[in-house]
Each structure stands twice: as C-alpha cells, then as structure tokens.
Known about the structure:
By secondary structure, the chain is mainly α. It folds into two domains: about 5-380, Growth Hormone, Chain: A, CATH 1.20.1250.20; about 400-465, Arc Repressor Mutant, subunit A (Orthogonal Bundle), CATH 1.10.10.10. It is about 85% helix and about 0% strand. The chain is built from 18 helices and no strands. It is elongated and about 85 Å long. The two termini are about 35 Å apart.
Amino acid sequence: xxxxxxxxxxxxxxxxxxxxxxxxxxxxxxxxxxxxxxxxxxxxxxxxxxxxxxxxxxxxxxxxxxxxxxxxxxxxxxxxxxxxxxxxxxxxxxxxxxxxxxxxxxxxxxxxxxxxxxxxxxxxxxxxxxxxxxxxxxxxxxxxxxxxxxxxxxxxxxxxxxxxxxxxxxxxxxxxxxxxxxxxxxxxxxxxxxxxxxxxxxxxxxxxxxxxxxxxxxxxxxxxxxxxxxxxxxxxxxxxxxxxxxxxxxxxxxxxxxxxxxxxxxxxxxxxxxxxxxxxxxxxxxxxxxxxxxxxxxxxxxxxxxxxxxxxxxxxxxxxxxxxxxxxxxxxxxxxxxxxxxxxxxxxxxxxxxxxxxxxxxxxxxxxxxxxxxxxxxxxxxxxxxxxxxxxxxxxxxxxxxxxxxxxxxxxxxxxxxxxxxxxxxxxxxxxxxxxxxxxxxxxxxxxxxxxxxxxxxxxxxxxxxx
Length: 467
C-alpha cells in the first residue's frame, strides 16, 4: 500500500472519529439539560448544520485563494477545538447548542474537504471502498478506545481536540503535496455532467430512503440510551467497525459490481428489523441489526458519491456529498421517525413496504445508469489509449523530436490561430513556424493544414492494416 493511501486512510479515519466522537459527546452533554426526546432533536439540529458545512466547501474553494484557504482552515481548526471544550462544559442548553452548531458547521466543511482529498490522492480507484471501509473502522475503533479508556468528559474533549489538530495537519500536508505536484490525480474534467447529475439525483433518492430506515433504528437506540432504561455501552461499536471493514472489502469485489446488490440486501434486513421492533420485538435485535448494517450503509453512501466525483466537472461538490445527504435526510425524518416508533404496528408495516418498493426501483435504475456511464467512460479511455499508441507509431516512423511531437499534438487538438498555439506551447510564432516547417519536411507536406490531413490519412491506412 502506497504512503499516500495510508495517509489518506488516517486522515479520513480521524475525521470519522472526530465527527462521531463529537456527536456522542454532544448527546451526553445535552442529556444534562433536556430529556431523551430533546437529545434526539438537538442531535438533528447539529447534523442539519453540518450539511451546510459540507455544501459550503466547493463554492468557498472557488472564491478563495490558496493563501486564504490555508488561513480559513487553521482558523476553523482553532474554533472547532474551542467549541468542543465549550460543549464539554455544558453551561446551559443554549450555550451547548450554540457550540454544537458551530462545531458541526466546521466539521461539515472539513469533512467535504477530506473526502475530496482522498479521491484526489488515491491512484487506484479499485480500492476506493476498501479505503473508506478501513478508514471508517479505524475511526470507530478510536472512538471505542476514547470512550472506554478515558472516563473523564474533559479528557475526552482533549483527545478529540488532539485528533482535530492531527486531522487538519494531515489534510494540509496532503493537499500541499498535491498542489506541488508530488501527487497527481487522475482526470476529473469529464464531459458527462448531465448524466452524472441524473445518476447523482437517483443516488440521493436511494440514500434518502435508506436513511429513513436507519434514522428510525438510530432513534430507537438513542431514545433507549438517553432514557437510561438500557445501558448500551461501547462494545456494540466493535460490530460497527467490523461491518464497515467488511463492507469495504465486499463492495470492491469485482470492481464494485455487486455493491448495490449487497446494500439492497442489508436494507431489506434493516426494514424487517424496524417492523419487528414496532411490533414489540426485542430491543437487542434492533441494536444488533443497527450496528451490523450501519457500517455497510456508511461505507456505501461515502463510496458512491466519491465515485461519482470521478465523472464530474465538480468533484469537490460530489466527493463529500454522501454524509451531507445522509445528515440532511436524518434531520428531516427525525420527527417522522419518532412518531413512527410510537405509531400502531400496521402503520409501520405499510410505510416499510412502501419504502422498500421505492428503494428497489431506484437501486435498479441507478445500477443500470451507473454501469452505462462506466462502460462509456471505459470506451472513451480505450479510444484515447489507442490514439496515443497510433501517435507514438507516427512519431517513431517520421523521427519526430519531443518538441515536434508537442507541436503536432497541439495542431491535431486545436483549431485556433497560430498565435494562440504559440501561447499554448509557450514559444514564439517564429519558433512555431520552424517546427511546423520541420514537420512538413519530414512528412513531405506543405503548411499545417496539409500536415493534419496527412496524419489522419496515415492513421486510417494504419487502422486498415490492423494496427
């Protein structure tokens, strides 16, 4: 595993730890100021504000210079750390809520930035889900150790603050390497944004429907924990880490060909579990299914949107959209899912069946559309490779220098004036004319137009010959 991949996993894993750890700390501190229903609603508020942070990253990056970006990141880190300590102090409901809103606004911003960074430095897309799965499991394990080995709220806040500092520094280091050219990402400026938008909307619908199911399970767990009737403890989080790790490896199987099918099965199991709990089934069953399937879902939506960013001209927008959509849907369904937990069982069964049917349709359409997009992209890449191979043969046959090859490529790819080509190639017009003259001499052609016609004629002849 390359060093850049390891650093990407560490950064993303620490982000998951800080986000989930801060959410857990916030819930515990809010329990001093309100009842269990109030904790659930307060949790929905901070998740909602984090969505704004996730969505702000892309437009702010376009507006700010690199210097301003660095200043904003460092200032945001300081404010985030201070907010964590204010939350830990739980002075009052209003103060704790304000600090939580500010902290999760910044966590949303950093989360979107880090997800984009991972897609940028990861040079092997076939391990994308594994990267997310390992990072997620690492973050959950850090939270488990934090909550079990540290028994002081203030010490827990200190640990979160140190992790925040490390997270930002790792992110800054990797982005600096990318900007300096140490890490070169694959092309993301794809002419497929209309199809990407359509596929993205389908995926948003899938995530929204599945989020409703998981939000209902999550609220059932949170209500029981906050009321004190059952001490959930930290050990079930190991199931969450294991499920996230397993999901990453299963999803990447055969280049993520079965990722949607696997998630569909997990969603079906979770829907059945919601029905069982609403009908008076054992709480332990709901807890077990929630932690086992939540890891699959977290890796699923993060990987799905990061993969979509590879096919878009706005990768900074799509890369971190997974958690933003998940958090937003969790917020808007919070009150509905709470009511569903107290509704008659037949209402829950009907809603569960409707959700399952809608999700089935959307996953089927999304899977087909994504497969078509990937196949189209693969054909385009093959054509580009074939063109590059033919050009290499042309350059070898006519003994073109490296500079002459650059001029030839520019002539083939551009229909601009000679002055524009000279600027593009960073040479004078006189020098450009000299290179074109040399190319004409080697190919026995006249002028740039004749050179271009000769190349395509030569290419067609080679293709008919089986090259």
